[in-house]
Amino acid sequence: MQNYRLGDYIRQRRQELNLTQEQVCAGICEPVTLSRFENGRQTPSRTRINAILQRLGLPDDRYYALVTPEELEIEALKKEIVACNALKHVNEGFDKISQLEKIVKPDDQITQQFILRSKVLLGGLDKRYSSDE
Q1: Using one digit for the tens of pLDDT, what is the confidence trace for 73-85?
Q2: Does the reported pTM lie above 0.90?
């Protein structure tokens, strides 16, 4: 399955309609902001993305299927951590967990639980954690 970033989707549709960034973002945001969205350097607010998608004639429910570069990085790290656990690469796994902890948002409870679970599993392999903990 191929992953698409929201900005790629916006740029593609804008170009299909032969619209400039200025035309698309008029009254919504600055052209430089739209450029950042398209290049994945900034994540738009839900309000702005709804307005941009509406202007491009796209349903805003597609927004949920698209991911940001940060989300892609988080998912890639999670896969690598699972692989480290399966292959018993404990130190590499803990390195990946540290990377994940730096980018995950504190309110992302699912990923926070994943981190705790992974620490326990990897820590059990090298006896960092006992079964009592």
Answers
A1: 888 899 999 999 9
A2: no
